[in-house]
């Protein structure tokens, strides 16, 4: 068996693994990144007929306060951003539409709240932003609201926000402390949503550039099948033919993969429960159109149908050929619908009707559709009694964990970036090894 030694070996080349490898390489560590398939993991960009389909909207939430921005600045990543126009994000209210209030500007514009209710809601926003409103891990947001004397309109607004941002039609499943910590971040931001010009592939290429420029190694099609450990430390990870040893190991692979690898290690039983946790599944239906259909909004959400449409090419100029348009409909799948093909078909129909309503004439302009029926949006869903995996267990001192299944900040890729950042800082702090520190 061939053997190599590094300062840090990173297993998994999704956004979490890539950002950790780039961060550590940039700080002078000798790194190897091992990915079983292609780099990017679930953050994929696929080009078809001149349209760029991202596996997901590559929307970054609260960019100004995000860990991705910290990483971008620290590593000098070259990314061009296009920020969401807030007043173009609307609720479908049947006959009418209204602005979704995600900060004070949106609050003043929304028709969902009137008169005193605007002040009442603003009061809740202020309380949340200042950190006085914390919620309770044992109460869902629905239960939390029910226990308080909140006016029906404010109550409905909070429940709308919960379902809009947590990819769940069920406010009973969203822990209230998670709800408030999420909104504390969102209400403070000046940039609620941004898109990366060129999609995920641009970010992946940038991470690759930093790793390579700093002497790091990237090995694709390299599946780790075995790890060796002693009582306190991981000593090596292995493919069939190669052994990689290091001072530190970062596992940026999902819980079911971790469980397989960590059998007969001191943390085997600690990992078990995370494999049982449910992911968040959604359904995507993207349509590439030959000719742009103008609209007053670039994001429209229908809470009754649990569907929203984003005009991706409005923000990402590279997503469609000149004059064309790329729209994306996302629908929430309830747990009982996940493996139900009938429910998937119904969802597609609902999405097509929603396109008909808001982008009339899209069928005539259709150049290419692309549906994705059951992708894992977030590997561990924010739900009552489901919490993220710790980024470290004291029993195995040099093993670290990162990914959107880990404890961190925000949702989706921000969980990958924040856990990656935390892990990188911990490794660098160990010997005071931060460059320039
Ligand atoms: C349809 C869709 C839409 C999305 N939209 C958004 C969005 O708009 N905004 C946003 O912020 N996020 C979005 N996300 C979420 C975002 O894509 C994920 O949070 C992020 O990509 C997760 O990255 P990760 O590195 O944590 O995990 P992953 O991408 O799952 O990476 C894990 C990697 O580990 C590799 N691996 C596994 N086992 C092994 C092994 N044994 N050896 C070597 N390698 C291994 C896998 O091949 C994979 O590449 C979306 C996701 C989906 C699916």
Automatic annotation (TrEMBL):
SUPFAM superfamilies: FAD/NAD(P)-binding domain (SSF51905). It comes from the Bacteria. Residues 15-427 form the Amine oxidase domain. Gene3D superfamilies: 3.90.660.50, FAD/NAD(P)-binding domain (3.50.50.60). GO terms for molecular function: oxidoreductase activity. InterPro entries: Amino_oxidase, FAD/NAD-bd_sf, Zeta_carotene_desat/Oxidored. This is Phytoene dehydrogenase. It holds the Pfam family Amino_oxidase.
């Amino acid at each position: 068996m061939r053997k190599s030694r590094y300062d840090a070996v990173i297993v998994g080349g999704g956004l979490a693994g890539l950002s950790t490898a780039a961060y550590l390489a940039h700080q002078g560590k000798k790194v190897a990144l091992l990915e079983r398939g292609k780099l990017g993991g679930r953050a994929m960009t696929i080009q078809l007929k001149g349209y760029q389909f991202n596996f997901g909207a590559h929307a970054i939430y609260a960019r100004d306060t995000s860990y991705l921005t910290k990483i971008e600045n620290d590593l000098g990543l070259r990314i061009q951003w296009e920020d969401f126009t807030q007043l173009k994000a609307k609720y479908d209210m049947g006959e009418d539409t209204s602005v979704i209030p995600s900060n004070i500007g949106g609050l003043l514009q929304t028709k969902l709240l009137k008169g005193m209710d605007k002040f009442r809601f603003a009061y809740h926003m202020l309380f949340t932003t200042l950190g006085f409103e914390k919620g309770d891990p044992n109460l869902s947001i629905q239960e939390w609201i029910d226990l308080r004397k909140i006016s029906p309109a404010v109550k409905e607004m909070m429940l709308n926000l919960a379902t809009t941002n947590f990819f769940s039609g069920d406010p009973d499943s969203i822990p209230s402390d998670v709800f408030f910590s999420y909104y504390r971040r969102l209400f403070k931001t000046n940039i609620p949503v941004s898109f990366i010009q060129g999609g995920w592939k641009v970010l992946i290429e940038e991470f690759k550039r930093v790793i390579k420029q700093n002497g790091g190694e990237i090995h694709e099609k390299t599946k780790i099948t075995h790890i060796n450990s002693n009582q306190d430390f991981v000593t090596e990870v292995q493919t069939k033919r190669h052994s990689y040893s290091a001072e530190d190991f970062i596992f940026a692979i999902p819980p079911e993969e971790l469980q397989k690898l960590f059998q007969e290690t001191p943390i085997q039983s600690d990992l078990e429960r995370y494999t049982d946790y449910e992911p968040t599944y959604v359904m995507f239906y993207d349509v590439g159109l030959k000719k742009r259909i103008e609209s007053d909004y670039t994001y429209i959400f229908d809470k009754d149908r649990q569907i929203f449409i984003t005009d991706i090419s409005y923000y990402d100029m590279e997503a469609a050929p000149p004059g064309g348009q790329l729209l994306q409909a996302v629908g929430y799948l309830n747990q009982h619908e996940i493996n139900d093909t009938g429910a998937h078909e119904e969802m597609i129909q609902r999405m097509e009707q929603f396109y008909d309503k808001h982008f009339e004439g899209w069928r005539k302009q259709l150049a290419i559709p692309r549906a994705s029926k059951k992708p894992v949006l977030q590997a561990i869903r924010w739900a009552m009694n489901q919490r993220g995996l710790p980024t470290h267990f004291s029993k195995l001192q040099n093993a670290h964990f990162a990914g959107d299944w880990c404890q961190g900040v925000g949702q989706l890729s921000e969980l990958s970036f924040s856990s990656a950042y935390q892990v990188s800082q911990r490794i660098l702090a160990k010997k005071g090894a931060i460059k320039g520190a």
